[in-house]
Structure formats: structure tokens, C-alpha cells
Amino acid sequence: MTASQTASKILSSAKLPDFARMLPSEAVFASARKSGFLKCNRTEATTVLSEIWKTTQGNSALLHQQQQAAPVANICAAHNFPPSNFTSLALLLQQTPLQTDLLAIAELLNDPPAILKSAKSKISSSRSIQLLESSQIFKKLVWLANVGKVPEAYELLAETYQAANSHKAQDYWTKAAEAGSGKACLVMGRQAVAMKKTDVAVAAFKQAMELGEAEAFYELGVLQIKQSNNSEKVESELAKEGEYNLSVAAASGIIRAAVKLAEIYKTRNDLNLSEQWVNVAYEMKAVEM
Fold first, then answer.
1. DSSP alpha helices (H): ranges in the chain?
2. Cα–Cα–Cα angle for 75, 78, 82, rounded to 5 degrees
3. Cα–Cα distance between 242 and 220 in angstroms, integer?
């Protein structure tokens, strides 16, 4: 076995680890730096990790104690080493058998992606919302949402409370939408449809579309087709707009949008176009499989 396969966690080693051997290759570092994913080289990473190991003296449990944040942050500041580097390194090393404490360092230093990743893991394994709310990582998630105004943090909180059937979910969906979450706008649009608040739904779906949510094109398209069917003109501008939105959704890989278009043209006895969309749906399913 190689050193990376036998090591458990980098910073829990009883003696100073050989970080130069454990870290990704120079080529991986170069590629990650070129893409902007990583903002350090191997030498810088090795130096910073070595100093952090010395502050914990091989006791990785210290990394979960908030009082360690200041000395670790000072080390990073002295070397111009952004906390996001720890998250990036942890993600790179996930592709190897080596487990690391790097995500714990990033979480300690309040790196948003690290908090989100750790929170998702904690939430997925928790069966009690009360215990979850008392956990340090959940408190950090709330901090990330309320102070950092991070849309993904609001989304995760909304989904968590929604799964627990808590009234808090709606508040977080609203805040997520205000913070620029397309997913939240989509959810709120669907809620408005269920409550038959068409104007509210249309506005929410359009906002979600602007924020890049392909599902919103489908939802708005279906709503517009339904509205046009209640009008005297089947070929109304609303119907055309609905078909366009459904076609955008289908082009984005949403199979049921293609199925819906096939149904629409079949009801109009346009069997040629109906068959074309049926074929598109089958092809999309084949690709998905």
C-alpha cells in the first residue's frame, strides 16, 4: 500500500506528515490553479499545512474547537492563503483513498462551500430537527444564510424545515428568492399554482427563468397552455409563448416538456409534429439511460 492508502487523516498523524507526497501532483495543482479552483501551489499548501499541524500537535479534534480559528486564520493570513484552498484541496483528495481534515479547517474558517458540504452531510444523517438545530454546523449554516446572504444556505434550510413539516420553511424559501435563488422562485411559483394565484405564479416562474432554472420554462409553458385553452383562440399569442417555453425546457433536457408538446399537437390533430416530439422524448430517455 502507498502512504496515501494507509494514512487515515492528514492532521491526526502522530508525527509531521509528508504533505509533499500526500497532496495531488503538480499537474493537478497547475490545472486547478489555471481554472481558478485553487489559489496556491504545492509548496505553499505544504508550508501552511505543516504549520497548522504544529498548532494541533497531531490532535485533529482541536480543529473542531472554535478557539482554534484565530491561530489557524493567522497562519493563513501570514501566507496569503485563502480558506477556500482547504475546501478545494479536500475535494481534489476525495478522488483518492486518503481521508483528510482539510474540510474541517475550511469549516472552522467559515468557508461557505465547506459549511454547505458539511451541513448537507449532517442533515442527511440526522433524524431529529431539534438535535440538528443545536449542532454547531447547523448554527453556521444559519449564520451563512442570515449574515452571508448565501442563496444555497437559505435553500438548504428551507428544504430541511420543509422535510420536517415546519412553518419555517416558507420563510427561508422567501429569503432565498430575495437573495437570488432561482430554485426558490421555482418552488414559490409552484406553490402559487397550487393556491390558484396565477399572476403570482407567472411572476415567480419568470424570475426563476431569468436566474437559469430550466424547470421554470416547463412550469410556465404548461400554465400558459392551460390559460390559452380557456380562451376562444387556440392559436393565441399565449399559446405560442407557452409552446416556446416548453420547447426551451425540452432543449434543456426536460423530457416531460417534449411529452407535453407531443400531447398538445396530438389534440390539434397535427400528428406529424406530435410524432416528432414523441421521438424527441424517446431519444432523450435513451440518452438519460
1. 3-6, 19-22, 26-34, 42-56, 69-78, 84-93, 102-108, 112-125, 129-134, 136-146, 151-163, 168-178, 182-194, 198-210, 214-229, 237-251, 255-267, 271-288
2. 75
3. 7
Asked if residues 109 and 73 have their Cβ atoms less than 8 Å apart, the reply is yes
CA end-to-end span of the chain? 37
Per-residue pLDDT, 108? 87
| Average pLDDT estimate for 101-114 | 89
Domain ranges of the chain: 3-109, 113-178, 197-288
In DSSP terms, 118 is beta-bridged to none
pLDDT digits (tens, 9 = 90+) for 215-270: 999 999 999 999 888 766 555 888 899 999 999 999 999 999 999 999 999 998 99
Domain 197-288: CATH superfamily is Tetratricopeptide repeat domain (1.25.40.10)
Compute the distance between CA of residue 142 and CA of residue 273 in angstroms, rounded to an integer: 50
pLDDT tens-digit map of 39-76: 999 999 999 999 988 887 756 566 666 677 889 999 99
